[in-house]
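Input chain follows. Return structure tokens only.
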Amino acid sequence: MESTFVHPGMSDEGLAVGAALAVDAQLNGRPPQPRLLPNVYLGHAYGDDEIARVLADAGLEATHLPGRVET
């Protein structure tokens, strides 16, 4: 195997992207041409304390939901 392509949209958003790529391939008569991503950095991760502080500064209260998934 020379290379592997893993799409960064590995959840429901990947369905819409995949559908758009399929239509593009049908209309243009060629498969999608994936580009190399230099990284998959999606931005800064904010902790609970930081989020609560920003909300408090805006006059809002944070509510923790039960069953939340930790990432």
